[in-house]
Design goal:
single chain; three-stranded parallel β-sheet; 3 helices
């Protein structure tokens, strides 16, 4: 090896190829009259309540349903259907 040059590995590693799954649900034209689940995790104790507040403030007629992931558990498709959810806003983190 030449002086002043070092052999090393990229600390980021190699990212494996992932299969992309296209979103199948069409976007809602508007939120008025819709049930929107706002899913809260402990990692966003200030953000998600503000998201819900702003949603209620800025979108007349929206029903912003609170879902606390840490007390109710993960939100499944079946649970979203039971809540008659039209959309969900999920804060993921850590």
């Amino acid at each position: 090896m030449e002086e002043g040059k070092y052999a090393c590995l990229d600390p980021r590693g190699r990212t494996p190829e992932k299969t992309k799954i296209p979103l199948k649900a069409p976007r809602l034209a508007e939120l008025k009259g819709k049930n929107v689940l706002v899913v809260m995790r402990e990692s966003f104790p200030n953000l998600m309540p503000e998201v819900r507040y702003q949603l209620l403030k800025q979108v007349p007629g929206v029903n912003a349903v609170w879902w606390d992931y840490d007390t109710r558990g993960g939100l499944t498709v079946e649970q979203a259907k039971e809540q008659k959810a039209d959309a969900a806003i999920v804060g993921v983190g850590y």
